[in-house]
């Protein structure tokens, strides 16, 4: 195996295991999770090899399928940004699938084979979206990931099928708008290859079809990323899906969509052309800022942990898209760094929610009390770590992405978005610290405390398969925070032309 084959081997791994799981699962259904873990583990290993190769050599791999070069053939581009995102999403998926052992028995018993098969297809779609260098091929992978996401969400509570159908309708509209925009660009450039199209766009940037394509593609991808006000599908989808589905889709799906938006705005059109006809970055930045505040305020109003995390996701995706809209080096660094940070934070929080639902049968915030820190001490440590990072307190990872975003707003003299970052951090503190107060500060009722028969809660911590991925993510948040300067130096090498 050579590094030049990694862009093809990663999606090929998911294709292989999407076939193996149902074939072998019909014979031995108990090993379907092990097969999914093996496939995800191999993909993560390949992603790590590819990223290390990029760090060492700085080589950008352009893989031509069948040896056919674009515009005739399909191309995968494995540059620094793609290598980084692929490693993040595959590592998160691997950890989430480890955690799924106990939850799968509770939330989707008897449906493990289709569940893990669909998970492999969804990861195939996400990886293909990141790696492809062709706009139409990107749409194909977008639909693979979307259809798989709809199915995974439907495998949830009784209200999950309705949420999945709603997501399907809205997502189909978003995908159609993106495809229509691609068609407009093809009519004026004659190519679907992103690199070739980027070279041609300066010659046709004033064409009405190009302006229309930009608008359609930004709206279409904005739907997939849940950019305010296109977020309507997200809260119920994340709330009523199984805990494993939420932990897979929330930290990965919207981040990949944000990555596509970044590719379209900064790599396809470019910094100099993106605002040539319309103030696109300004408009996107305003919606991102409103979404950050809206998601934070709605999160405060929720009494169920998963619903709170769902609205929090709307807010957090706003940070990433805000960084993209700033279109300067600090904004780019903040956006890319927040993809990593939020993937870790949100995956960890959904895993904690799933762990508590497994043990308690619910994740209602109103029922949290100080018995939780005694029954689930390490789970609460993991939750606290993620919560503090989400608020943006050093030395955890969440602080540093917000710091670079703040620097980006200052560089652009955009004081409104700087205020949004500061206010939203305070709002984040409100909805997370109310839970921490219940767990660490609230004492039992005096009557209960004085009751001679009151029994102190016993340690009922989750098992190793649940605790291990949560511990890795919690430690990861600290490590990313401590070594953020090194990560930022790597992100510097990913800058698009014009920065």
Automatic annotation (TrEMBL):
GO cellular component, one term: plasma membrane
Organism of provenance: Gracilimonas mengyeensis
GO terms of molecular function: NADH dehydrogenase (ubiquinone) activity
Lineage, opening ranks: Bacteria, Pseudomonadati, Balneolota, Balneolia, Balneolales
Keyword Membrane among UniProt keywords: yes
Topological category with respect to the lipid bilayer: Multi-pass membrane protein
Annotated compartments: Cell membrane; Membrane
Membrane-spanning parts: 6-27, 34-56, 76-98, 113-130, 167-188, 208-227, 248-271, 283-301, 308-326, 376-395, 415-433, 471-495
Name under which the protein is recorded: Multisubunit sodium/proton antiporter, MrpD subunit
Cited InterPro entries: CPA3_Na-H_Antiporter_D, NADH_UbQ_OxRdtase, ND/Mrp_TM
Keyword Transferase: no
GO biological process: ATP synthesis coupled electron transport
